[in-house]
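INTERNAL TRANSFER SHEET
From: sequence group
To: structure group
Subject: Rieske domain-containing protein

Please process the attached sequence and return the structure record in the designated field. Keep the field labels unchanged so the import script can parse them.
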Amino acid sequence: MLNRSARPLPPAAFRSLDFASAEDAAIWTRSWVTIGHVADIPRTGDILPFTVGTHGVHVERLADGGLIGRFNKAQHGGCRSVPVQCQTGAKTKCSFTSCGYSRDRRPIAAGSAEDAKALDQYIGLRPERLLPVAVRTIDGLIAVNLDPRGAEAADWLDQALLPDVASNEDSTQQSVHWLECNADWKLLAYQLAAGTELSSGLDFVRTSILLAGGARATATLLFPNAVIVSANDGHCVIILQPVAIGHTLCRIRVSGAGSETKSPESLLQSWLVEISPRLQQAKASQAAICFDPTDPESDSVQRGPLRHAAEPARWLVSKISEQIQSCSITAPGPFQATAHIGRRS
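Return from structure group:
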């Protein structure tokens, strides 16, 4: 059971390049990170790219229906080293989307002529020589682990854990949407799952929440970056991917299999309405912790946005602290950063 006695995270943990680097070393490279859904790559040869921290990886659909994960061939694009402008904590918009410091592209369809050139950045001519990445699936979700020592499966990688989350393969309606939010991934994870705790483990926490329309739903936070919101008429899966300091890409997939017939567009809009207040609250929390050089208490733990928050705040903070401490990483000191640039104060 997770020890929930960790100290609250200071504001710098949500706007610090140093802390983001610590998360890359202790969380993103040591955890089972959710990167997408099996429906993203339905055909043989399809590739799902995803930047995990500062590491470009992909998962490919094999001829037998299985999946294989690898590090991208062009880890730093066409550069011999990482340019200074790519070391600010913000993913750049670069033609080399395989780079661990650039923005990701959508899944690559096998056999597409226009994607053939881009595909070379990921697998090259000898994909069997690329470093492998561990891959697992659960209820249609694809998770990868970059730890070469072969980390144990997270306790949410248990088919019995998510009985209410359908694989979506038989859903009558599905829709995918990418939405960028000016908020740290931790604030979004908390706000999307904020409610009454139902159960938890070392790597997951499940809560009962109220949607914007007043309906009761269940939210399951799969550490570190996936939140599944389940209601009577379907599911909403939000995969969180940091793309800059205090800025997160939300990869949203909604599905519905109830008796009510909705178009994919209307289904998506109805779910966005339900979760929008929670996204807005995360943005407000991020804006409230902007660094103020004239305020000596700007980086005080007392100003931490999750200090007095309800569950799963303590669970999330304790999990993050445990991961960082287990990797013998010293928590960074006072730090300031905008959405694009980080610098020591």
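Handover comment: The mean pLDDT is 85. The helical segments are 17-28, 116-123, 185-193, 264-287, 313-326.
Transfer complete.
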